[in-house]
Amino acid sequence: MKRPIQLIAKLVPFVILFCFVLSCQQQTKVMVTEEQAKFIGNQYVKARNEANLDLLDGIYAADAVIHDPGQPEDIMSLDALKTYYLGNHTAFPDLKLSLEEIAISGDRIVWGWTFTGTNTGPLRGLPPTGNKVEFSGVAIDRVVDGKIVEEWVYYNLLDVFQQLGFTVTPPQGRK
Question: What's this model's pTM, rounded to 2 decimal places?
Answer without folding.
Answer: 0.79
